[in-house]
Amino acid sequence: MIQLFTRRCWLISVSMLFGLLPLSVEAKTAVERGRYIFDLAGCQGCHTREEGELLAGGRELDTPFGRFYTPNITPDTQTGIGSWSRTQFEQAVRKGLSPEGEHYYPVFPYTSYTAINDRDIDDLWAYLQTVPAVSRANQEHELPWPFRWRFLMLFWKWLFFDEGPRPVESGKSEEYQRGAYIARALGHCGECHTPRDFLGAMQLELEFAGTSSGPEGGVIPNITPDQETGIGRWSEGDVDSLLVMGMLPDADFVGAGMGEVVDNSTAALTDSDRQALIRFLREIPPVRRRVGGEPD
Q1: 212 to each of 12, 114, 192, 206, how far by Cα in Å?
Q2: What does the buried/exposed string (b/e) look like for 30-67 if buried means 16 or more CB atoms within 10 Å of the residue's CB?
Q3: End-to-end Cα, the chain, rounded Å
């Protein structure tokens, strides 16, 4: 635990030293802003396999529907996205469509990314042009019948995919709205923390209420402000410590997937964005739901 704490403190210190925790995102250039969006969106964790080159793909994602391998999103023109246009990139992120018009599986969280605004798409695209190009062919997913039939995603989208930003919640502060944008769009927190039905669609009536069948089969906790089953008893400082260094209220540290999210994403939040996310998580409706086999 001490080693993990030391590592995370070191990452935070180095990030601050080199400007990866910007004091003002607005003051940065498009590429610098894009790096910030890149961090918040968690691109590195999903598109970089263990011991692999940055964003060259190949990370395995085991799901109830089969095993997926993330693609190469470096600027390589043959095996990455170097031949894509900015419009094709936006189409992939917001609509889940490849340049050839094929439907992406929702293991790629375009169901959340669809709400990312124009400027953040532009900035992220600008940053991705600056990463080193890596020649690495994408791997075929290992999916059983009928999930290997990609055209079925057209019907899945018709049933479950709502393109575009979510409606602004009336009566909420700008800080809350910013936190909602971070949690629901850029950070796509609900993709892991919201349970899914038998067809893999998020059950939004249980948004952020946790699941016993998370990525890689892990238990994902309830992060609504319910006093008994969520994080309603946590202080703002508790949530802040989790987002900055992965430390829980009992002084233990998160591991596995959430540890990556902290190291690669939430530790990079500006102070104002972190406070906005905390406010959002404390003001969403509490949901009484235990996960991990515990009785309700």
Answers
A1: 31, 26, 10, 13
A2: eebbbbbbbbbbbbbbbbbbeeebebbbbbebebebbe
A3: 31
Three-class DSSP category at 238: helix
What residue ranges do the domains of the chain occupy? 1-27+166-286, 42-165
CA 249 to chain centre: 23
**pLDDT digits 0-9 by tens, 60-109:** 998 888 999 999 999 999 999 999 999 999 999 999 999 999 999 999 99
Cβ count near 254 (within 10 Å): 17
pTM of the model: 0.87
Q: Which residue reads 């060259």 in tokens?
A: 56
The helix or strand, by DSSP H or E, that contains position 69, with its residue range, turns out to be: strand 66-69
As given in the structure block, the two tokens for residue 44 are 């590195």
How is residue 98 written in tokens? 């490849």
What is d(CA 40, CA 211) in angstroms, rounded to the nearest whole number?
Answer: 22
User: In the numeric block, which tokens belong to residue 92?
Assistant: 């992939």
At residue 70, the 3 state secondary structure works out as: coil
**Which of 178, 182, 169, 237 minimizes the C-alpha distance to 208?**
182
Q: Is 238 exposed, middle or buried (0-12, 13-18, 19+ CB in 10 A)?
A: middle
Identity of the amino acid at 268: A
- DSSP code of 211? B
Q: How far is CA 277 from the centre of its chain?
A: 14
